[in-house]
Structure formats: C-alpha cells, structure tokens
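Running log. JK asked me to keep both predictions on one page so they can be read side by side. First protein, sequence followed by its tokens:
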Amino acid sequence: MKKNIAYLKDVKILFLVYIINISACIFFIYNRIHGINESQRWVNRTIRTQLYLEQSLSYLKDAESAQRGFLLTQDSAFLQPYYGAFENTNQAIHYVDSLTKDNPRQQKNLLWLQGLVNGRFLLFNQIFQSSDFFNKTPDEKRQQLLKGKTEMDSVRNCIAKMLTEENARLKERQDKKNRYIQVTLNYSLALMVFSVAIITFCYFWLVRELNKNMSGTGEQNSYKNPRHS
C-alpha cells in the first residue's frame, strides 16, 4: 500500500514537471512571436516613411511638369497636375512627421523640407498668378526659373538625405527582426528537444517503477499463498 502511495506521488510530481515545462514553452513562444510582430511593425513603419517621402517628391515633380507645359504653351490646361499638388505634398509630409516622431534627426530634416516645399510653391504661384511674367525680358525669366530650379534641387537633396537615414534604419530593423527570428527558432528547437527528453525520461521511469511495483506485489502474493508439494 505504501509503495502504491509513493508511486502515485511520484507520478503527480512528474506530471507537474511536464505541465510546467509545456507552459514555459507556450509562454516563451508566445512572447517571441509577439516580439517578431513588433519588429515587423517597425520595418513596415520605415517602409511607409520612405513611400511618403517619395510621394511628396512625386507631387512636386507633377507641379514642375505643369509649370513647363504652361510656360511653353500659355495654356492653363497644363496646370491640371498643379492643382492639389500643394495639399497632397503637405499631406505626405504630415504622414512622415507622424511616422518619425521617435527620430529627432528626421524631425529636424522635416522642418527643413517643409520650408523648402513652401518656398517652392510660393515661386510656382508667383509665376502662375503673375500677369506680367511673359512680358519680362529673357534674362528676368531665366533668373526666376533658375531660382525655382535651385529650390527644387534643395528639395531633392533634403529628401535624398532623409531616405538615406530611413534606409539605414530599415537595415537596422530588418537585421534585428532576423536575429529575433533566428533566436526564436533556436530556442524553440531546444525547448522541444528538452520536452521530448522529459517525456522520454518520464515514460521509462514510470515503466520501471510500475514493473518494480508489480514485481513486489507478486512476491507478496507468493509469500501469502505458498505452494505445498
């Protein structure tokens, strides 16, 4: 009877150890998956930042194209891409602002970019809303257009600088995510091997104890019921 009680107690202990091990595995894997998802979210954040920076430059290029067509033909139909370009550019910049709150360098670059964009659209308006632009001398026109070109080159340089910063952050975040995935795989494999080892140990231990228990019970029965010749 005492052997049976001890046996059941050992079984309960092994079962508890197994449950704790499985629970630890589940908790660990859950947290690692959450970490991978968080790393991917930061990667996606950087990609979106790059996209909005490229969009802001694209809207400015549309305005540039509208200006060239208008100046060549004096036909206001060519100004269609210009309408809404300022609002679209500022909206893209606003999205970049919300996505780079954690990066002081990018926030500083963004203020620079916003000023350049405002200056470039101010030059657009001076040309489109000026009634005497086409009456100016070629040299005056050239000077005004060169000023616009200089502003646009500054915008391109600023966006290129910001994209370089985001590329560096993207690489850093992708490397971190890949390391997180690799560590998760390694530890998950180790935990599974450990779990299998525990199960195997428990199985053989229980079988051994059960055999010992049955053997002891058989000997007791033989002692109580001896055969007579």
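And the second, directly underneath as requested:
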Amino acid sequence: MTPQRFAAAGFAVLAMLVGCGSVEQDQEGALSQVRAVAQTLSRNKAAATPVPELGRAELAAFNVPVVQVNSSSGVAYLVPLKRNVGGADIWATGSQQTMTLRGGQITMTRGFGAFDVIESVVPQDMRGAVGQNYTRSYTTLDGADQPIREVMTCDSRLAGGETITIKGRAHVTQRIHETCVSEGKSFENDYWLDASGVRKLHQYMGNAIGYVTVSRVID
C-alpha cells in the first residue's frame, strides 16, 4: 500500500460505523460530519492537494474515541468498531480496515494489504511483563499469500515517569522499555502507560511492517 492510499484511508476515519451496534444513535450527527470530512479530504487528494493532519479539536468534534496510527506508510485515524471482544478492542478506518488492540498492543490488522498482521502472540499486560522474559511473534503474508512467522525473545523494564504530549494535551505516564531479539537482530519498543492503560506505543511489527506508533488521542 502506498503512503497516499494509507493516509486517505486513515482520514476517512469512520463513516462506515453508522448502523454498527458499537455506536450510539445520538452520535450519528457527528459521524455525518466525519463522512463530510472524508469526502472533502478525498477531493483534496484527487486534486493533488496535501492532506492536512487533523487537530485535537477536529477529532473531538466527532464525539467518538480516536486513535492515531503512524507508520512508514503514513498516518491513519481509527475509531472503535467493537470493544472488549475476548478482551480485545477492534478499531477501524472509514475504508473498513481494522486494527485489533489487546492490552493496548497491536495483535492483528486487516485491510492494509502487505502490511497486515494475520496473527500475533503478545504479553497479556505490559505492566505484568516488566522484569520478565517472554516471546512475541507476528505472522504476515508474503507475495504469494504464504504465512511468514517472526518470533522474538523479549524482556522489558520500567524506564521511569514521563509526561508526553499528544496533539496538545499532556499525559503523565510511566514508560516501559522493551528489548526484543530476532534472528540475531535487536529491536527496541516503548509503551507509555497512564491510569487508563497504554496511552501510546512505539512497536516493531516485523520485517514487513517495521515500526508503528499508536496514540490514543480521544478517549
């Protein structure tokens, strides 16, 4: 997927959630605004106009929780599709691309083409993983749609308190620093946790994807 396609999908945000059981009826007006923004951004893209990054006030106006995903392919905004499905939350873009978070960590994606994580094994809880040795694994598909599984041996430590800023709002967090080794290569991940869970993560997702940053912008 090209950066332009990834960004366009992200800025579509959540027009498709109208009618889904996870969205309250009184939010339909806000979702109509999302649809209008998506259409405007699509027109801008077609006209080769740079797609603007949405600010906190614009995202908050939609009246739904929003996470922002940054990767080498661009930026995407996702909102809840289903919550607490077997302990995991499923988030979606307006193009029906989905990302599953368990314990605030990415465990699965769908609709992102070569960037999809088919399945993964991650710690149940990053706080509980501190000081432990454990395994992470990510399964992606190659060009012939054959699964490729990358296994990492990891350990993590508490790196101390940090105040981070996400779209103009400060969050008091504890940062957990994780080191993982796979096939002789070392990767470092960071997770910023506040009282509500993982507020932000910077996580390596395997060779096909690289690093991804996920930030909870609107709760």
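Observation for JK regarding the second prediction: Helices lie at 3-11, 28-46, 56-60, 126-129.
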